[in-house]
Design brief:
- The chain is α/β, with parallel strands linked by helices.
- The chain folds into two domains: about 120 residues, P-loop containing nucleotide triphosphate hydrolases (Rossmann fold); about 70 residues.
- It is about 55% helix and about 10% strand.
- A five-stranded parallel β-sheet has the order 2-3-1-4-5, sandwiched between helices.
- The radius of gyration is 17 Å and the shape is globular.
- The N and C termini lie close together (about 10 Å).
Protein backbone atom coordinates (compact mmCIF):
# COMPACT_ATOMS: atom_id res chain seq x y z
CA UNK A 1 0.00 0.00 0.00
CA UNK A 2 1.27 3.47 -0.92
CA UNK A 3 0.41 6.32 1.46
CA UNK A 4 0.49 9.75 -0.22
CA UNK A 5 -0.01 13.05 1.56
CA UNK A 6 -1.82 15.85 -0.27
CA UNK A 7 -1.59 19.48 0.83
CA UNK A 8 -1.61 23.02 -0.50
CA UNK A 9 -2.88 26.41 0.61
CA UNK A 10 -6.11 28.33 0.75
CA UNK A 11 -8.17 27.66 -2.42
CA UNK A 12 -5.17 26.07 -4.17
CA UNK A 13 -7.26 23.17 -5.53
CA UNK A 14 -6.31 20.32 -3.20
CA UNK A 15 -9.90 19.15 -2.65
CA UNK A 16 -10.51 19.10 -6.44
CA UNK A 17 -7.31 17.08 -6.95
CA UNK A 18 -8.32 14.64 -4.18
CA UNK A 19 -11.73 14.13 -5.83
CA UNK A 20 -10.10 13.47 -9.22
CA UNK A 21 -7.66 10.95 -7.69
CA UNK A 22 -10.60 9.20 -6.03
CA UNK A 23 -12.41 8.97 -9.40
CA UNK A 24 -9.31 7.28 -10.85
CA UNK A 25 -9.25 4.66 -8.09
CA UNK A 26 -7.34 6.07 -5.10
CA UNK A 27 -8.72 5.77 -1.59
CA UNK A 28 -8.96 9.28 -0.11
CA UNK A 29 -9.01 10.44 3.51
CA UNK A 30 -9.91 14.05 4.34
CA UNK A 31 -8.38 15.36 7.59
CA UNK A 32 -10.86 18.24 7.44
CA UNK A 33 -13.81 15.83 7.41
CA UNK A 34 -12.30 13.82 10.28
CA UNK A 35 -11.77 17.11 12.14
CA UNK A 36 -15.49 17.87 11.75
CA UNK A 37 -16.36 14.40 13.04
CA UNK A 38 -14.20 14.54 16.19
CA UNK A 39 -15.77 17.94 17.07
CA UNK A 40 -19.36 16.64 16.80
CA UNK A 41 -21.33 16.11 20.02
CA UNK A 42 -20.49 12.40 20.03
CA UNK A 43 -16.90 13.03 18.84
CA UNK A 44 -13.72 12.40 20.81
CA UNK A 45 -12.61 16.05 21.01
CA UNK A 46 -15.99 17.64 21.83
CA UNK A 47 -15.76 17.74 25.64
CA UNK A 48 -12.13 18.91 25.71
CA UNK A 49 -12.78 21.71 23.20
CA UNK A 50 -15.93 22.96 24.95
CA UNK A 51 -14.09 22.89 28.29
CA UNK A 52 -11.20 24.89 26.79
CA UNK A 53 -13.15 27.44 24.72
CA UNK A 54 -16.35 27.77 26.75
CA UNK A 55 -20.04 27.08 26.19
CA UNK A 56 -20.38 30.21 24.00
CA UNK A 57 -19.10 28.14 21.05
CA UNK A 58 -22.00 25.66 21.43
CA UNK A 59 -25.09 26.33 19.29
CA UNK A 60 -28.74 25.77 20.23
CA UNK A 61 -28.55 22.28 18.68
CA UNK A 62 -25.81 21.30 21.14
CA UNK A 63 -23.15 21.15 18.43
CA UNK A 64 -19.98 23.26 18.34
CA UNK A 65 -20.51 26.25 16.04
CA UNK A 66 -17.56 26.18 13.64
CA UNK A 67 -17.95 29.89 12.85
CA UNK A 68 -17.92 30.82 16.55
CA UNK A 69 -14.87 28.64 17.19
CA UNK A 70 -13.15 29.87 14.01
CA UNK A 71 -13.72 33.48 15.08
CA UNK A 72 -11.73 32.81 18.25
CA UNK A 73 -8.83 30.81 16.86
CA UNK A 74 -8.19 32.53 13.53
CA UNK A 75 -7.68 35.84 15.31
CA UNK A 76 -5.19 34.32 17.75
CA UNK A 77 -2.40 31.93 16.62
CA UNK A 78 -1.81 30.74 20.20
CA UNK A 79 -5.45 29.70 20.61
CA UNK A 80 -5.28 27.96 17.22
CA UNK A 81 -2.29 25.96 18.48
CA UNK A 82 -4.31 24.93 21.54
CA UNK A 83 -7.24 23.81 19.36
CA UNK A 84 -4.94 21.84 17.04
CA UNK A 85 -3.33 20.13 20.04
CA UNK A 86 -6.78 18.98 21.20
CA UNK A 87 -8.10 17.91 17.79
CA UNK A 88 -5.11 16.51 15.87
CA UNK A 89 -4.34 13.44 18.04
CA UNK A 90 -7.95 12.20 17.57
CA UNK A 91 -7.79 12.90 13.81
CA UNK A 92 -4.51 10.95 13.53
CA UNK A 93 -6.02 8.01 15.40
CA UNK A 94 -9.01 7.95 13.04
CA UNK A 95 -6.66 8.17 10.03
CA UNK A 96 -4.58 5.24 11.28
CA UNK A 97 -7.73 3.16 11.77
CA UNK A 98 -8.92 3.94 8.23
CA UNK A 99 -5.49 3.15 6.77
CA UNK A 100 -5.47 -0.20 8.57
CA UNK A 101 -8.95 -1.05 7.21
CA UNK A 102 -7.89 -0.14 3.65
CA UNK A 103 -4.64 -2.15 3.97
CA UNK A 104 -6.65 -5.25 4.98
CA UNK A 105 -9.13 -4.87 2.10
CA UNK A 106 -6.75 -3.71 -0.64
CA UNK A 107 -3.01 -4.32 0.05
CA UNK A 108 -1.97 -2.73 -3.29
CA UNK A 109 -4.00 0.44 -2.70
CA UNK A 110 -2.93 4.03 -3.25
CA UNK A 111 -4.26 6.05 -0.31
CA UNK A 112 -4.27 9.85 -0.52
CA UNK A 113 -4.65 11.74 2.77
CA UNK A 114 -5.59 15.39 2.30
CA UNK A 115 -4.80 17.98 5.00
CA UNK A 116 -4.19 21.73 5.05
CA UNK A 117 -1.31 21.97 7.54
CA UNK A 118 0.47 18.69 6.86
CA UNK A 119 3.89 20.36 6.47
CA UNK A 120 3.46 22.78 9.37
CA UNK A 121 2.44 19.98 11.76
CA UNK A 122 5.21 17.65 10.54
CA UNK A 123 2.66 14.94 9.73
CA UNK A 124 3.84 14.82 6.08
CA UNK A 125 6.70 12.63 7.36
CA UNK A 126 4.18 9.82 7.96
CA UNK A 127 3.63 9.38 4.20
CA UNK A 128 5.61 7.70 1.43
CA UNK A 129 5.37 10.80 -0.76
CA UNK A 130 3.91 14.31 -0.69
CA UNK A 131 1.75 16.02 -3.34
CA UNK A 132 1.43 19.83 -3.20
CA UNK A 133 -1.15 21.83 -5.16
CA UNK A 134 0.01 25.30 -6.24
CA UNK A 135 -1.36 28.36 -8.05
CA UNK A 136 -0.58 32.11 -7.99
CA UNK A 137 -1.28 34.09 -4.81
CA UNK A 138 -3.85 36.38 -6.49
CA UNK A 139 -5.74 33.38 -7.89
CA UNK A 140 -6.00 31.92 -4.37
CA UNK A 141 -7.56 35.20 -3.20
CA UNK A 142 -10.03 35.33 -6.12
CA UNK A 143 -11.07 31.70 -5.68
CA UNK A 144 -11.51 32.03 -1.91
CA UNK A 145 -13.61 35.18 -2.26
CA UNK A 146 -15.80 33.54 -4.90
CA UNK A 147 -16.23 30.35 -2.86
CA UNK A 148 -16.87 31.92 0.56
CA UNK A 149 -18.33 35.29 -0.44
CA UNK A 150 -15.48 36.79 1.62
CA UNK A 151 -13.93 40.24 1.44
CA UNK A 152 -10.51 40.77 -0.10
CA UNK A 153 -9.18 41.83 3.32
CA UNK A 154 -10.39 38.58 4.91
CA UNK A 155 -8.88 36.49 2.11
CA UNK A 156 -5.53 38.29 2.38
CA UNK A 157 -5.51 37.98 6.18
CA UNK A 158 -6.14 34.22 5.99
CA UNK A 159 -3.47 33.79 3.35
CA UNK A 160 -0.96 35.80 5.38
CA UNK A 161 -1.30 33.29 8.23
CA UNK A 162 -0.36 30.35 5.98
CA UNK A 163 2.99 29.01 4.87
CA UNK A 164 3.51 30.35 1.30
CA UNK A 165 2.94 27.81 -1.47
CA UNK A 166 6.47 28.39 -2.80
CA UNK A 167 7.76 27.25 0.60
CA UNK A 168 5.47 24.19 0.59
CA UNK A 169 6.64 23.32 -2.93
CA UNK A 170 10.14 22.61 -1.51
CA UNK A 171 8.73 19.62 0.41
CA UNK A 172 6.86 18.14 -2.56
CA UNK A 173 7.62 14.90 -4.37
CA UNK A 174 4.87 15.83 -6.85
CA UNK A 175 3.47 19.29 -7.71
CA UNK A 176 0.07 19.87 -9.34
CA UNK A 177 -0.27 23.38 -10.78
CA UNK A 178 -3.99 24.25 -10.71
CA UNK A 179 -3.66 27.70 -12.26
CA UNK A 180 -4.83 26.60 -15.74
CA UNK A 181 -8.14 25.12 -16.87
CA UNK A 182 -9.81 22.25 -15.02
CA UNK A 183 -8.98 20.05 -18.02
CA UNK A 184 -5.27 20.87 -17.63
CA UNK A 185 -5.40 20.02 -13.93
CA UNK A 186 -7.24 16.74 -14.69
CA UNK A 187 -4.52 15.83 -17.21
CA UNK A 188 -1.78 16.41 -14.57
CA UNK A 189 -3.75 14.34 -12.05
CA UNK A 190 -4.05 11.42 -14.51
CA UNK A 191 -0.26 11.46 -15.00
CA UNK A 192 0.25 11.65 -11.22
CA UNK A 193 -2.09 8.67 -10.72
CA UNK A 194 -0.09 6.62 -13.22
CA UNK A 195 3.12 7.37 -11.30
CA UNK A 196 1.57 6.63 -7.91
CA UNK A 197 0.30 3.27 -9.17
CA UNK A 198 3.84 2.46 -10.39
CA UNK A 199 5.23 3.37 -6.95
CA UNK A 200 2.58 1.23 -5.21
CA UNK A 201 3.52 -1.74 -7.40
Amino acid sequence: MLKAGLTGGLASGKTFVAAELEKLGCHTISADRLGHEVLMRDGEAYDEVVREFGSAIVGSNGEIGRKALGGIVFADPERLKVLNALVHPHVFRRQEKLLEQIRERDPGAVVVSEAAIMIESGSYKRYDCLIVTVCPHELQIDRYREREGASEADARARLARQMPLEEKRKYADYVIDTSGTKAETVRQVAELYRRLKQEAA
